[in-house]
Amino acid sequence: MARHPIHKAVNSPSPDTQIAIYYKKNSQWINNQLFLVFAYKMSNIAKYLALDKVANFFNIIKQNGGIRGSLFKLYRQDELKDGQLVGEDNYGNKYFENPRYFYGRNRWVEYSDKFYMNYDGSQVPAEWFGWLHYKTDLPPHLDPNRPKYKWMLDWNENLSGTTGQYTPYSTTRPKIEAWQPKPKSSV
């Protein structure tokens, strides 16, 4: 029959003294084991009562800057997420990742405050675009093999829908002549 580790041979004649010495030497181990058993049972109860969801909610609120910061991010981005900050580009955009979320939703960008509500996908530089869309697993600051040629331009915002948009010059005559109303003359 195998002996329990509590009954180790100690130079003391009394078994009670042996147990007391063992517990004193290994109290850290025993306390940790009891805590792990207690935490395991509590985690099952917490899952049953959905307390882990409540804890996750408070973690998201905490990571997004408290209640005020969370409400502002919710207003600005329509969702709240928690994740690890992977990096920041030259324009102030912050890139996050959380592997608990679904593939395709576990990497995201939080646009710089200078864009406020006028942000769009064209404001992500090309090097971060590849990481966001899973073309590479290495963010730009960790990838030493990323090419940077002198003919590569710096990022420019897409100006479509603004007064600075590109309008091509056409040499063909229009098929329809637009009606121009004559101004009313005052009598």
From TrEMBL:
Any one cellular-component term (Gene Ontology): mitochondrial inner membrane
Cellular compartments annotated: Mitochondrion inner membrane
UniProt keyword terms in alphabetical order: Electron transport, Membrane, Mitochondrion, Mitochondrion inner membrane, Respiratory chain, Transport
A GO BP annotation: response to oxidative stress
Pfam family, one: NDUFA12
Membrane topology listed for this record: Peripheral membrane protein
Claim: Lipoprotein is one of the keywords in the record: no
Family: Belongs to the complex I NDUFA12 subunit family.
Function of the protein: Accessory subunit of the mitochondrial membrane respiratory chain NADH dehydrogenase (Complex I), that is believed not to be involved in catalysis. Complex I functions in the transfer of electrons from NADH to the respiratory chain. The immediate electron acceptor for the enzyme is believed to be ubiquinone.
Oligomeric and partner information: Complex I is composed of 45 different subunits.
Name assigned to this protein: NADH dehydrogenase [ubiquinone] 1 alpha subcomplex subunit 12
Protein source organism: Leptidea sinapis
